[in-house]
Design brief:
Chain A has about 120 residues and is mainly β. Chain A has no helices and 11 strands. Classes of the chains: A mainly beta (about 120), B mainly beta (about 120).
Chain lengths: ~120, ~120
């Protein structure tokens, strides 16, 4: 158990809909990362938040947005869903930068999104 | 741009065989981290190892060992005496520094190597 909690584990929805994926990082971790794993794109970095602020952006679509709340949990919002958005979405967390374990990511079990 | 190449898409071995998973990376950063993750059929990503770019010592952990060679930009992973439970997808990943080295959590993953160990 990595200590990172993601909900829901599975989600089935229709094209055009909007969903929200939730992530609770490990206790004490300030950074949260979102990754997407799909068959054609593999594992791709989407976005990072650190203590409530956006830190880095990857290949995240404009239809997707994320935020990190004061209690450090994070949500990834996916809107106007398309068939190609079907994927496994991972959240990961890490300790504050500059610490001994900088760079070590702990991944949640993922949220599997199926768009029909 | 960062790039990680895992040339082997699939490997199939019989239990007790040794197997090496190859990983080659590209980066312009002088400081970076290399990782190996395991993704069993259940789907979660399990951290195996992290290696700092300044530390080229090889590492052994039980049946697992890693060979980091900066000169060839490779970070290969060997499983000795493989077992059926080793069957999984293995990912090599490279991190880059964000904001002048304050964070290393943006990972670039290879495409993964599917390892199947037959009894």
């Amino acid at each position: 158990d990595s200590g990172v909690t993601q909900t829901p584990k599975h989600l089935i929805t229709a094209t055009g809909q909007r969903v929200t994926l939730r992530c609770s990082p490990r206790s004490g971790d300030l950074s949260v990362y979102w990754y997407q794993q799909s068959l054609d794109q593999g594992l791709q970095f989407l976005i990072q938040y650190y203590n409530g602020e956006e830190r880095a952006k990857g290949n995240i679509l404009e239809r997707f947005s994320a935020q990190q709340f004061p209690d450090l949990h994070s949500e990834l919002n996916l809107s106007s869903l398309e068939l190609g958005d079907s994927a496994l979405y991972f959240c990961a967390s890490s300790v504050a930068p500059g610490t001994a374990n900088t760079g070590e990511l702990f991944f949640g079990e993922g949220s599997r999104l199926t768009v029909l | 741009a960062q790039k990680v190449t895992q040339a082997q898409t699939e490997i199939s071995v019989v239990e007790k065989e040794d197997v090496t998973l190859d990983c080659v990376y590209e980066t312009r950063d002088t400081t970076y981290y290399l990782f190996w993750y395991k993704q069993p059929p259940s789907g979660e990503l399990v951290f195996l190892i992290r290696r700092n770019s300044f530390d080229e010592q090889n590492e052994i952990s039980g049946r697992y060992s890693w060979n980091f060679q900066k000169s060839t930009s490779s970070f290969n992973f060997t499983i000795t005496a493989s077992q059926v439970v080793d069957s999984a997808v293995y990912f090599c990943a490279l991190s880059e520094a964000i904001r002048g080295g304050t964070s290393y959590g943006k990972l670039t993953f290879g495409q993964g190597t599917i390892l199947t160990v037959h009894p």
